[in-house]
Write a structure and sequence with these properties.
alpha+beta, two-stranded antiparallel sheet, seven-stranded mixed β-sheet, about 60% helix, Butyryl-CoA Dehydrogenase, subunit A, domain 3, 11 strands, about 575 residues, Butyryl-Coa Dehydrogenase, subunit A, domain 1, 4 domains
């Protein structure tokens, strides 16, 4: 028997030690929903017990049913013929199992049939689903679509769509990318026109690389304002599958084979405006992307966990020179690094999801209050605080978790040796599935662009003050002394780069600064966790020891530049 929750001590540690009391009270409106909905928790203990019960159930579903099907799904994938996508029977069975478990509306409110769980718990499910089958997460993870309708749609749209999403009757897709737009969503050209007599909107144009583009319900970014060419002319629309919405083909991909990635043609497709005109990119997609960053980070973490476990199992069984290879220093060093990287990524991710939950909770209070004058100042201050933190943490988490997943999957193949290159083992699938995670929903380079502002502004300094003030002793005290020194050097590097007053130089050094910030933050978080469980001290120490030279290399890079730095880089690329 394999349960992907109860067999993961680190994931259970996260649930037990994240201190989600404030998050849960916000989500449940101080537990007022219990009087109206029979499954709503009456207090925090009731809520955490419910989270644990559902996570255990999903752990069983992912470990016992979904994972054993994953190799067949990867090998055979969905079928496409005459414009119709048919998912593999085992993918359909996976979705049926998740529907039966009642987790297709994890974050939706009770009134729509959802579980009303925080993003943190949903991300834990995301991690387990991805560990079992990375491609299935691209279907399970599209729940952000229903969240967007809940946040920005009108009451009629909420009543029309959200119960169907919660029950699993509806699936969805985010139709953003176009053949010529890619990451530059400001250049989206799919046209939205409104009939002046009826008020009906219609969509015309193309979309490409659309995950689950065969869905029943589509969120579509389209140009609604004639004569515009930037993000201010874009709006968000809801449309449903219909004969006018044509799936032209599905992509033949390197990995994530279980889900269809579609090219779509809109031939005057009827649609509804979601939210306000001209806010599609500037507000709605930005909100959607914040959730997507966390979701992909969770997907990458699940793949990394699977790759590490497969490598550890193989190394413990494979004999060379009359002993199992996990006894060789070169191999157990790789395994130790893979483990520490995976734990470090998980530590950062769930710190981030808690901040995201707090931001969402306080934002809901501020933006949905009937009387703005009655909003407590504490709620306004909390919204501002957590919005700033989430703006830097979500791209950092997406960048770090996805890069770690690629590294761990790469090392997993190396530990398998030649067999890891063969399709007889799962290692090569994890490698293929991990590769997309630091590309879609914003490449690592774009995450750096999103995070660097917060790094320059030193948004995380209050967090460091809180973490540095904890009562460390022994080895932990020595580690936090190292981290304090790294923190000081990070501040110096930031000031050095700022002082250059050269935007090209600042952009060139942005990744070094963001990665330095990640090393400091994760180091503090891991030493904090070691205070709660001393068995984690070795993990924290290994992370800090490995991070020191990496940090120093980036510091030297950031502080070595002058006005010729940019020219030298151009010379190198043109050599």
């Amino acid at each position: 028997m394999s349960n992907f929750f109860t067999d993961n001590e680190d994931l259970m540690f996260a649930l037990d030690n994240l201190e989600l009391e404030e998050v849960t009270a916000l989500k449940e409106d101080d537990y007022k929903y219990a009087a109206e909905f029979p499954h709503a928790p009456v207090d925090f203990n009731d809520a955490i017990d419910n989270y644990r019960r559902v996570l255990t159930e999903i752990g069983d579903v992912t470990g016992e049913r979904i994972e054993p099907r994953s190799r067949t799904v990867d090998a055979e994938g969905p079928h496409f013929e005459d414009g119709v996508v048919t998912y593999h029977p085992l993918t359909q069975a996976n979705l049926r199992d998740l529907r039966n478990a009642g987790v297709m509306g994890v974050m939706l409110p009770h009134k729509y049939g959802g579980l009303n769980f925080p993003n943190t718990i949903y991300t834990m499910m995301t991690e387990m689903v991805s560990r079992a089958d990375g491609s299935l997460q691209n279907l399970f993870g599209l729940q952000d679509i229903s969240e967007t309708i809940y946040e920005f749609g009108d009451e009629e749209q909420k009543d029309r769509y959200l119960p169907g999403f919660a029950s699993g009757e509806y699936d969805g897709s985010m139709d953003l990318t176009e053949p010529d737009s890619g990451s530059d969503l400001q250049s989206v050209r799919l046209k939205a026109t409104q009939d002046p007599k009826t008020g009906q909107w219609h969509l015309d144009g193309m979309k490409r690389f659309i995950t689950n583009g065969c869905a029943k319900v589509h969120l579509v970014l389209a140009r609604s304002e004639e004569g515009t060419s930037d993000g201010r002319g874009l709006s968000m629309f809801i449309c449903e599958s219909c004969p006018e919405l044509v799936v032209r083909r599905i992509e033949d991909k390197m990995g994530i084979h279980g889900v269809a990635t579609c090219e779509l043609q809109y031939n005057h497709v009827p649609a509804q405006l979601c939210g306000q005109r001209k806010r599609g990119l500037t507000k709605y997609v930005m909100s959607l992307m914040n959730g997507a960053r966390v979701a992909i980070a969770g997907q990458a973490l699940g793949i990394a966990e699977a790759a590490y476990r497969e490598a550890r199992k193989y190394a413990a069984e494979r004999e060379q020179f009359k002993q199992t290879i996990d006894k060789f220093p070169a191999i157990y060093d790789m395994l130790a690094r893979m483990k520490v990287k995976t734990v470090a990524a998980r530590t950062l991710l769930y710190h981030t999801t808690k901040v995201v939950d707090l931001r969402q909770g306080y934002t809901h209070i501020v933006e949905h209050a009937k009387d703005a004058a009655a909003i407590p100042q504490e709620a306004r201050a909390a919204q501002k605080k957590y919005s700033k933190l989430a703006a830097v943490l979500t791209p950092m988490s997406k960048a770090y978790c996805t890069e770690i997943a690629n590294q761990v999957a790469y090392d997993g193949i190396q530990i398998h040796g030649g067999t890891g290159f063969m399709r007889d083992f799962n290692a090569e699938r994890y490698y293929r599935d991990a590769r997309i995670t630091n590309i879609y929903e914003g490449t690592t380079q774009l995450q750096v662009v999103a995070a660097i502002g917060g790094v320059i502004q030193r948004v995380l300094e209050p967090t460091y003050d809180e973490l540095a003030a904890l009562p460390y002793d022994g080895a932990l005290d020595r580690m936090t002394s190292k981290l304090a020194d790294m923190r000081t050097k990070l501040g110096e590097a930031v000031e050095f780069v700022k002082a250059r007053k050269d935007s090209d130089y600042q952009n060139l050094m942005a990744r070094a600064l963001v990665e330095m910030e990640i090393y400091v933050l994760v180091g503090y978080l891991m030493t904090r966790d070691a205070l709660k469980d001393r068995r984690r001290e070795a993990l924290a120490e290994k992370f800090v020891i490995d991070a020191e030279p990496e940090f120093e290399a980036r510091r030297l890079l950031a502080m070595s530049g002058d006005n010729t730095t940019i020219d030298r880089h151009w010379e190198i690329t043109e050599y």
